[in-house]
């Protein structure tokens, strides 16, 4: 994490001589802290806990083995909680089996149950499911209307209290509380200058989340077991709604752009929305709702979430590879291939390195295409290589901790550099292991 950001955001006292180039996010919004537990694993959300990354499976929950395997894959990619759909009695019946399978595989990542329409029945009729889940996602907009909705909501909260579980009350643009919307639309029509329908809907989203959270507390659920979210599918709506929500309560907030979309559109839209909020100190846990490409890797949503947090300097998950974009000065693909293979190599090592080499996730590696910015950028990295551009002498200087240590040449530059990165990691981050041995 950037030390600069810490300095600039934690200044207190009477002095303040403003820093010339303040960097880092605004003060983190003060929230209650919610614990999500399974076995010996506890993931804290809110308070002073780091922003947590979560994800969601897209397997049929009835297929317990496939779901457990995907939860494991998402966990290995770094997902700190994984949500699964619980939509039918058949799915609810399999939740405990999924949990047991994960426990057998040594995966203690907390599971979150995603409920709509019939969650009150499923959680009541399948107590093993209620117990195997570490948190329940409740959408008050999908629980019926009027008294029926209130009773169903109360039933889910009662189960959460009985099983000692936290909940996320997640309202969604696509399933707004119709009673509240109608009431607010009526009130709006009485205004001398009525709001736009969009503004009323944003207000209803926020109100619905906060009022349902307050009701859950009245029903006996402690306030430190409630996380809120207001999911929308457009960036500006997301920012507007969460800025408002953040001022109306102190519950931790789950951020995500719902239906973000496929490919670069989904990544860019999610990054734009979440970065604006996180930079403003808003957000305690995130999920990136990418639509996977056919046959694509579900874990990509975890990687994107981690990269957003790491790019903002909020957390570090894996070493960063700084690579130039390439231009007419380098017509070969050698440096593109090296940048890509080093990035993949580093990420593949992380499940082991994370345990073996504490701190390695903050390492910077530079792979540059020519002499223009290559040596300079490589000196700034922990370890960097400057490849030869078109017409340059075919040599590749390597810099370690700012010093030029060797000049590589020949056909095995990529392999040699990868070996040097591995040795650097062992030397710099493996000290604790050597001492213990
Ligand atoms: S470092 Fe060299 S190859 Fe890379 S973008 Fe800059 S000028 Fe182009």
TrEMBL record:
The prosthetic group or cofactor this protein requires is: [4Fe-4S] cluster
Instruction: Point out the signal peptide segment.
Output: none
Keyword 4Fe-4S assigned: yes
Q: Which GO terms describe its biological process?
A: isopentenyl diphosphate biosynthetic process, methylerythritol 4-phosphate pathway; terpenoid biosynthetic process
IspG C-terminal domain: from which residue to which, for each copy? 321-422
Taxonomically, the superkingdom here is Bacteria
- SUPFAM superfamilies associated with the record: Nitrite and sulphite reductase 4Fe-4S domain-like
Is Cell wall biogenesis/degradation found in the keyword set? no
What are its E.C. numbers?
Answer: 1.17.7.3
**How would you classify this enzyme at the top EC level?**
oxidoreductase
User: Which Gene3D superfamilies has this protein been placed in?
Assistant: Dihydropteroate synthase-like, Sulfite Reductase Hemoprotein, domain 1
Return the annotated region ranges for Disordered. Answer: 1-24
Q: Name one GO molecular function term.
A: 4-hydroxy-3-methylbut-2-en-1-yl diphosphate synthase activity (ferredoxin)
Give the Pfam families listed for this entry: GcpE, GcpE_C
Renumbered to this chain, the Low complexity biased-composition regions fall at 1-14
Q: Which residues bind [4Fe-4S] cluster?
A: 324, 327, 370, 377
Residue ranges of the IspG TIM-barrel domain? 42-305
Pathway of action: Isoprenoid biosynthesis; isopentenyl diphosphate biosynthesis via DXP pathway; isopentenyl diphosphate from 1-deoxy-D-xylulose 5-phosphate: step 5/6
Q: Which reaction does it catalyse?
A: (2E)-4-hydroxy-3-methylbut-2-enyl diphosphate + oxidized [flavodoxin] + H2O + 2 H(+) = 2-C-methyl-D-erythritol 2,4-cyclic diphosphate + reduced [flavodoxin]
Question: What does the note under cofactor report?
Answer: Binds 1 [4Fe-4S] cluster.
Sorted alphabetically, which keywords does the UniProt record give?
A: 4Fe-4S, Iron, Iron-sulfur, Isoprene biosynthesis, Metal-binding, Oxidoreductase
Q: Which NCBIfam families match?
A: ispG_gcpE (TIGR00612), PRK00366.1 (NF001540)
Q: What does this protein do?
A: Converts 2C-methyl-D-erythritol 2,4-cyclodiphosphate (ME-2,4cPP) into 1-hydroxy-2-methyl-2-(E)-butenyl 4-diphosphate.
Family, according to the entry, reads as follows: Belongs to the IspG family.
Kindly provide the name given to this protein in its UniProt entry: 4-hydroxy-3-methylbut-2-en-1-yl diphosphate synthase (flavodoxin)
Name its species. Answer: Pigmentiphaga aceris
């Amino acid at each position: 994490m950037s030390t600069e950001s810490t300095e600039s955001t934690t200044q207190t006292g009477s002095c303040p001589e403003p820093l010339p180039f303040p960097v880092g996010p605004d003060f983190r919004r003060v929230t209650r802290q919610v614990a999500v537990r399974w076995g010996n694993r506890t993931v804290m959300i809110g308070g002073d806990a780091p922003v947590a990354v979560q994800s969601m499976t897209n397997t049929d929950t009835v297929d317990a083995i496939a779901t457990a395997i995907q939860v494991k894959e998402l966990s290995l990619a770094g997902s700190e909680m994984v949500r699964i759909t619980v939509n039918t009695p058949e799915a609810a019946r399999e939740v405990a089996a999924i949990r047991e399978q994960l426990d057998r595989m040594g995966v203690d990542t907390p599971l979150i149950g995603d409920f709509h329409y019939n969650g009150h029945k499923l959680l009541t009729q399948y107590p093993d499911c209620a117990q195997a889940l570490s948190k329940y996602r409740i959408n008050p907009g999908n629980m019926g209307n009027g008294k029926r909705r209130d009773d169903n909501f109360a039933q889910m909260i009662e189960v959460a209290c009985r099983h000692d579980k936290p909940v996320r009350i997640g309202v969604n643009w696509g399933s707004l509380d119709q009673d509240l919307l109608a009431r607010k639309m009526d009130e709006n029509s009485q205004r001398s200058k009525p709001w736009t329908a969009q503004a009323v809907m944003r207000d209803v989203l926020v109100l619905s989340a906060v009022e349902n959270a307050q009701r859950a507390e009245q029903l006996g659920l402690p306030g430190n077991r409630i996380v809120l979210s207001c999911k929308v599918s457009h960036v500006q709506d997301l920012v507007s709604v969460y800025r408002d929500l953040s001022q109306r309560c102190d519950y931790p907030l789950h951020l995500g752009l719902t239906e973000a979309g496929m490919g670069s559109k989904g990544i860019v839209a999610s990054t734009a929305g979440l970065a604006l909020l996180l930079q403003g100190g808003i957000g305690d846990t995130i999920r990136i709702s990418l639509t996977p490409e056919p046959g694509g890797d579900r874990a990509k949503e975890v990687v994107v979430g981690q990269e957003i947090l790491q790019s903002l300097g909020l957390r570090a998950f894996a070493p960063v590879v700084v690579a130039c974009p390439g231009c007419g000065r380098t017509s070969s693909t050698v440096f593109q291939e090296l940048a890509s293979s080093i990035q993949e190599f580093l990420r593949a090592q992380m499940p082991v390195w994370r345990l073996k080499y504490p701190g390695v996730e903050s390492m910077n590696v530079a792979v540059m295409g020519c002499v223009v910015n290559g040596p300079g950028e490589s000196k700034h990295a922990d370890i960097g290589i400057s490849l030869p551009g078109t017409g340059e002498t075919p040599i590749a200087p390597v810099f370690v901790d700012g010093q030029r240590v060797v000049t590589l040449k020949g056909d095995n530059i990529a392999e040699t550099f990868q070996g040097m990165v591995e040795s650097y990691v062992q030397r710099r981050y493996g000290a604790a292991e050597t001492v213990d041995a």
